[in-house]
Each structure stands twice: as structure tokens, then as C-alpha cells.
Amino acid sequence: MKPPKFMYCDPDTVEDAIALKSRYGHDSLVLAGGQSLMPMLNMRLANPDVLIDINGISDLKRITRTGEVLEIGAGVRQSELETDAAVADAVPLLGKVVPYIGHIENRHRGTVGGSLAHADAAAELPCAAITLDATVVVQGPSGRREIAARDFFEGFMTNACAPDELVVAVRFPVASAASGSAFVEVARREGDFALAAAAAVAEVGTDGRFTALSIGVAGIAATPVRATVVEEALVGQAATAENIAAAAKRIADRVTAGDDLHATGTYRKHLAATVVKRAVVAAVADAQNRSNGS
Amino acid sequence: MTTVENEKPRYKYIGSDRKRVEDPRLLVGRGGYIADLKFPGLLHAAILRSPVPHATIRSIDATEALKLPGVVAVVTGEDCKAHMNPCMNFGPSSIPQFPLAVDKVRYVGEAVAAVIAESRYIAEDAVELLEVEFEDLPAVTNPVAAMEPGAALLHDGHGSNIGYERTFEFGDVAGAISGADLVVEDTLHWGRSAGMPMETSGAVARPGLNGVLEIYCNSLNFSYFSFLIAGALKLPSNRLTMNPVPAGGSFGSKFTAHKVPTLAGFLALRTGRPVSYVEDRLDHLMNSDHHASDRYYDAKMGFTSEGIITGLDVDVVDDYGAYMQFGVGTHGNAFSQIVGPYGFRNVKYHLRAVLTNKCQQGAYRGFGSEVHNWVLERLIDKAAVELGLKPEEIRRRNFITNDQFPYKIPGGNVYDSGNYPAVLDKALGMIDLEHWRSEQKRLREEEGRYIGIGLATTQERSVFSATEFWALNDNPDFPLTSSPESATVTIDPAGQFQLLLHCQSMWGNSPETVGTTVLAEEFGIEPETVNVRYADTARALPGTGPGGSRYTVMLAGAVRGASRKLQRKLIDIAAHSLEVAAEDLELVDARVQVKGAPEKSLSLPELASTAYFFALNMPPGMESGLEESYTYDHPYTTLPSADRSDLGVFYPIMGHACHIAVMEVDPDTGTTKFLDYVAVHDAGTMVNPKSLGGHVTGGAAQGLGSTLYEELAYDDEGQFKSSTFMDYLVPTANEVPPFRIGHVETPSPFTEYGIKGGGEGGRMVTPSVVSAAIDDALREYGMRVRELPVKPATIVATVQAAIAESSK
């Protein structure tokens, strides 16, 4: 379990990092927190000629709120999202999602951009990003562009970045004061990748009906998926446990993950419906609590 | 948090909670493990492992690998065939094994070739450059299919894929079953898991002076068998010295782990230079010597209408993997406590040990007895439900009673002593089961939550006798009967103590705490003042090493024996100096004093000074110095009968435990959580309740792993599915509940101080108690744990099937 030979670069600026990406493209890999990449290197599942270590780029480590947008730099450590007051205020769901990423030691090293770029379908931050309609900011030799999270995750551990681009930030819309959020995950052990997980953000009108609902699900397909079938079934309907349970069952059709060592496809279908149901119920309760001022 | 309730100690040091003397150096990172060992010019080996389960090795081309700068040599099975004998082997000689595969590979992960290079990095680079041509053979992965005629053979020389088959019957099982009021039957599968120490197995070997090969390794027990490693390496036994290096955990995985040091030794001999081979995690998971039991059972048990067990009929197929290095010793363990703590007399056991294209089996905490215990307890729980008896009640009715000890069980082993009702009562006293049973009902009705209660017992055999290695065979090659342990106690000229242990016993357990506590008890010194060392095999007296929960008992016997000899000498010196008769003297608190007149005394430093430097003050003819050794052999063992209708006494120092777990199960996710857990153990006289509690906790955590999480899985094609810790799930502090621990002390009549072994019991009972609690929580859905590990998907599938059935 020793990595193969590679050239190591540690640029100080985003521009230098992109210059290296432009030069080495597919033969290079970006090292951020290393929580996935280092084991892959040690097991020789990854074999880059060049490793571009972006940990020294201070520009990537900022959290800024501009109006109704919270921008989190790609190099921000995941654990900061658990403790940062601005994050808690702007996007409460993040603080509920992040504790499920690995263990605290992983989150102290693991970065926000690293997790998004790695694009594991069972990972928490990609699931949160699609739920919250985040945009991923990438930068290449010709400048920056923004990619909607739901377009960013293209397939199994593949993202929409070009070989000469670097993920530099992610932008989350600030949550509406009326919304409630929740995250429910089931894993074999605490800190493992989700067998299935669901994030939900809900708004409920004074008549008790859903006025807005977004649900993201991890661990059930090649990418995190939005549970649009469930959202559509519920918006405009009364936010009752019965309605939610009935609608949640529709997610089962979106489960494409089959049998593996830890779960069966059949189990994942049942589990997906269960976590969606529980996340929506909890998000509704959270919305009610917030509107009650508690 | 863990609470320990212990009885009042009867000794000054033995029986008191003490911090381990091993811990300070470990806690500051000065453990001195194998990977810390450096020699000038040290080379590093990396292994090419088979990617296929069963194939003939057509060719190995090392041309490109050897061109890589820094690569020193490539060694293959051809070299082993030419320059080695097969490895030591307690299984059939028709199933030989070398440290590198010879002619064919038999499982994914088997070692094919070793690259030796200036660094492990270069060695791994070169492994990728080796070109091996395999010619695939049919993969044999199902142990039942493996026995069918026409199945591909793993070992042509053995002629069959059945490594061992025999039926043992004690009593009249057919009569017991046919005469029973109730017969419960089940088909059960205990899946493969293994001990996962933080430190893997490793060895450093170097050619030394006088043609002596030195091997430093973290394997255990080698003072028992280093001559066998020398034999494999074609060295005279006195030209191999094995040096103990502390092991960072074993749990069985380093027990007699001979192939790693044998390979390192062979590579050092081939290159003439020091070579380090330390398994990495991939090596360890797929090729550790010690994948554990993988057994398929058809079992039935008869009961009277009162719940009294009439007999047990077991048919077990054990998926042994590709080799049988320890024979069927893990089933010998089952025979040592085949009736559990229960009084029934009729047992039948049909065993087939089957060869398949998987890693070989070895040792893991429990050594196979834990599997049999799970089967026993599964059947008893099934009967309890059918008879409407509480789990504690059916067990209590079947217990061997206190007046029956020493008790000879069917098959011949003897239980030395016990008080099973006391253990059960203590456990019941630590938890309010009536509360939990009413809470179970309330939570189900009011909150739709499912909680279950499991209660199980286990025997905890300890202190194996060597007869166990061969007693299941009719014509053993080497029917040995010794399993000794030695200690050397030295008091230096200043009166300070050195304790020399004669085997590698430092594997995360507490040999130094035990040895120094006994010395403290015998001499009235503080345990922390003793310095402990380990002998290499050139110096070592007879020793067997830890395993089978023997070391505490055996070390206590050896240290006490050496202490007694030393005490006699001290008293004789004092008698001469003080001009007092020896019988009027006693050793109290590190002084030899006149009985009734303690002011007339000599301290240990004064006596030591005399022993080393003042020969004229010593009794005439007495040898200078203060060093004594003692070799303590098994306290109670007998030979098996020639026809094996009686297997003899081979594991008589018998502990006992009862665990009770309260668990919540989520029927929609299949996840579980503990609400309470009580563990009561009787390991005879306790040396140190704190470290015994650690054993119970660690063992129970590992039992939990085997029950819910850990699985060394192969697919139908023989591919290994568990090669990383993302696949092989070891429970962490998040999954392991705070076990509330209690102790009962029923001393052994056969050991020094009445100590029994207590290293494995935790893992022997957790699987039973957790299985029972899950069943109990989801009883309305017909939940029945039949296969370990039980995964969330299985639980949800059972619940969903029951719901679908009931809505038909």
C-alpha cells in the first residue's frame, strides 16, 4: 500500500494550479483534503503523473455571504461548516448534513470542493448541493463558469469539470426563513458512506399544504438524484404523515443501485422511501418550529 | 461507561484493579513494534498476490521487474520448491503449503512471488512489472458442491476436497431425539470474520554470525515450534534464533503465524541480506493466516415438555479454504464445551472440513468454540419460545449443578468448577428485566418502536492441553502431551527484580501485569518496580505462548514456581546470616523476618548483596546469585482413548458467562442500537479486574463485529470482496455499547491461586445474545437470525416478507 511514483506540485495561487492543470490535464490529479485520494493512491487505484496539491492556496479557503448567496471556497474544510455561524444562519441544512461525512478527523481534512469534485453518489455534500440548487464555480484558463449542481454530477464519480478546470467554490442560495430542513442517513456504521440518505427542504403554508419542497437522495444511483417525483406529488398537498409516506414510495423507481456487499437493490428501494419519508417529515417539523420561533 | 463490580480481594495484589505495567511505554509511542526495527542495509519485500482463485502457474517473467533500479531479487514458488521444505503444518501432510504458491494458486490473494528491493515503494513498483501466466482452473467456492464427485480438486495429492470427515457420538442421540417431547431444528451459517489488529503480521530476518539466521517477528508461540521453522528453511535448529518483538494486537491473528517469519527468513537466506516483510492491510485481509470459522450447520436438539435438553445432533460443514494448517483444532474447541453449561448427555457431531478456493482458516478469539456456542444458544432460544419459557428459565433448568464438579462432559473433557446460577443471578440483578419487558410492550403499543431482549450464556474453556492438537485424529504423527510455560526470576545484586518470559506473549494482553502482580504477591514488592524481558529462542526454556486463554494461568504457575525456589534460597541465606532456623523465618513485605519477631529481619537488598558478593556469609556450598527458573506444565490433562470414544481431558479450566442485551431494531432500515448491555463473567480468581474487564469489553466488541458487521466475503466465482476496511466493517466506538461488567469468582481447584483464563469469553457470547435480542424485537414478523453477520437488508427483507404474507 505505497503510492506509485508521481511528481508533486504545490501551487500558491489558483492561476498557478490551473496552469498546471492545463499542462498536465488527464495525467494530473488535484489533492485537496486527501480523504479519498490518498487511499486510492496507496492502493494504486489512482496513478497520476502529477499531483497538484491545492492546500496552500489561501484564496480557496473563504466563506462569504453576498446578499442572498453564500459562497464557500473549495478549500474550506468540511468541519468548518459545522461550526461557522454564517453558514448556520444562511443555509441551516449544511450543518445537519456535514456531521454525517466520515468522522470528525476526516472532516478536519476533507474539503468542500474535494467532496463535490470526487462526486461520490453516496456522499453527503453532493446530495445537499442538488437539494439546495447550488451552483459549482469552476475556473479554467479562460476564466470562471458556474455549473448548476444538478448538471455537475454527470455519472459515477464523474463531474462536468474540463481537464484544465479546477473547482474553486460552491454557491448556495440563502434559505428562506419559512423553510425547514432535515437530513436522514442510514449507513452500516457511523461515518460510512450512505446506504441511502435524503436531504429535504420544505415550506408549508398556513393552510398546512406544501408550498415548496426539494428533496435530494444519495446512495441509490450513479449520481445523487433529486426526488422530483416525490416533490411533484406533494407540493400543494397537505403535509400529513400519510401523504408524505405515500409519496415517498415513488422514489423506489429511481433506485438503480443493485446488490453489493452491504445492501441489496430491493433493500435500497425500501430504504430510499424510508429516508425520504423521514427527511420530509422532519423538515416539515423544522419549518413549523422555525415559524413558531422556537 | 463500563462499571466493574468485583468481590473483595483475598490477596494483597491479586484481585485488585491495577493499571497495566505495559501501558506507559505504549501510550507514549515507544512500543517498539516490528515496523520500528531497522538494520543497516535492510531490504523490503512486497508480494504479488494471485488475482485468480484457482489456476496453474504457467510462467513468471521477472525480466522487467529486475531491471527497475533498487530491485535486488525476485523469489517465486520455484525457489521454495528447490530450497525449502513445506511449512510446518498440523493438518494432513497430503495438503502441503509453502509461503509462496508452488505450481498453482488456490485462492485470490495467495502469495505468488516476492520482490525484494531497497524500499517497499520500489518493491511495489516492481510487483506491478511481474508478468505471470495463469491457466485458470474451475473455482471451487461452495463447500457442499466441493464434496460432490467431479468437483475440481484443490490438492491432487489429497485426492478429495474433504480435508477431514468424522462422526463422533457420545450417548444415544437417536433415542434422545425420538424420545423428546419437542425437537427444534435449524439451518445456520456462521460467516467468515477474523481478528483485525491495528498492527499486521511482520518479520525481519537477517543472516547473523556463525551461520545463524535471526528472525525478529511479532508472531506468537514460536518458542514452541521454532525448530519446525528451521526445518522448513532446511537449517539445523540451533542455527535459527527467533527474537520476540511486541505485537500490536493479535486476537488470534498472530497465533502460530508461521508463514510470515518463514518467508522473511527464506528471503534473507536467498539474498544474504536483512529483509523486512510486513503485511500491509491488503495482504492481511486477503491472506492473513487467520480467516476464522465459516460453518454451515444442520442442527437439532430434543427437549422434554419441561424444557430439559435430551440431546443434540449437529451436522457441520466447515468451509476451510485452501489449506488446513491447524487441522481441525477449531472443532476440538467445540468438543471442549460441547454441551455448554448444560447437563445433557447425548451428543452427535458430524464434521466435514472442506477445501475450497478461499484463504485458509486460523485462529480468532474463541477458536471455533464460539461458533458451537452460538448454535447451542440459537436452538435453546427457539425451544424456549415454543415452550413458553423465559430464556433465563430454560437455561436455569438445564444448568450443571454446583455439586457435580469436577464434571466430565460427553466426549471426555472435564469442567473443573463453576457456579452457573450465581452468574445468571448476578446478571439478572444488574438489569431490571421486568422493567424492560413492560417497556417493550409499551413502546410497541404507544410509539411503534421495536425493542428486544436477548439473554445467553457461554462456557469459556481455557488453558488448552497439547492433546487437543491431535485428539480428533486416529493416527496422529506427533501425539504430544506437553504445553509448558516457563519463567525466570532474577533478583539483582541491589535487590531489584527481573522477570524473563520465555515466549512472545506481548500482543496487547497483559502478560507483564500478570507476571509482576504475581511477583508482588510472592515477595511484597510493587509490581511496577519489576523489569520484564523476553527470551529469544536460543535462550528460551520450554514455552508454548499465549492462546486458548492459557497464558495468565500458565504464567502465574511458572512465576509462582520460580518464586518459591527463590524464596527458599533467600530464607536459607537469611537463616545462615541471622543464625536462626529456616522454619522460623518468613518472607513478608520484601523482608525475611523471624516469625513473631519482625524487628529481626533482612531486606531483599541485604540478602541479594550477600548472594552476589559475600560468599563467605552464605551457607557452605550454596551457589552465588539469585536466579531461579520454573517450567509449569498443564495442570490437568489426560490421554484420549484409542477409539476416541473419550477425547480425554484437554481444556478443563472452565469459565462461564452470561450476557443480557436490550436492543432496539428499526424494521424499516434494519439498523440496531443498544439500550443496555450487561456482561457477567466468572474467570475464577481474578488477577486484575480492570484488565479482565478490558478482555470482556474487547471480546464482546469483536463478537458484535462478527454478528452485525464483519464479513470476509467471496463471490461465487471466488473473487474476494472484502479487501479494504471500506468493505470489511470493524465496529468502532460508535457501534460498541458501554458494556456493564460484573464478575463472579469460582476458583479453579487445579490452578495456582484458582485463576481461570478469561481472554475470549466476550466474543463467545455476544453473537448469541445479539441474535436473540434481534429475534425478540421483531418476533411478530417471524425474525430468526440464521446467518452471521446479520445485515440490515436481511432484517428488512424478513419484515417486508411477513407484511406481504399477512396482507395476502
TrEMBL record, chain A:
Span of domain FAD-binding PCMH-type: 1-177
Sequence intervals crossing the membrane: none
Keywords noted in UniProt: FAD, Flavoprotein, Oxidoreductase
Molecular function, one GO term: oxidoreductase activity
Superkingdom, natural source: Bacteria
Pfam family name, one: FAD_binding_5
Record's protein name: Xanthine dehydrogenase family protein subunit M
Native source species: Pseudonocardia bannensis
Phylogenetic classification of the source organism: Bacteria, Bacillati, Actinomycetota, Actinomycetes, Pseudonocardiales
UniProtKB/TrEMBL annotation, chain B:
Gene3D superfamilies linked to this entry: Aldehyde oxidase/xanthine dehydrogenase, a/b hammerhead, Aldehyde oxidase/xanthine dehydrogenase, molybdopterin binding domain
Keywords recorded for this protein, A-Z: Molybdenum, Oxidoreductase
Segments forming domain Aldehyde oxidase/xanthine dehydrogenase a/b hammerhead: 28-138
Molecular function in Gene Ontology: iron ion binding; oxidoreductase activity
SMART domains cross-referenced by the UniProt entry: Ald_Xan_dh_C (SM01008)
UniProt xrefs under PANTHER family: ALDEHYDE OXIDASE 1-RELATED, XANTHINE DEHYDROGENASE
Pfam families from the UniProt entry: Ald_Xan_dh_C (PF01315), MoCoBD_1 (PF02738), MoCoBD_2 (PF20256)
Keyword Oxidoreductase: yes
Protein name per the record: Xanthine dehydrogenase family protein
Organism of origin: Pseudonocardia bannensis
Source domain of life: Bacteria
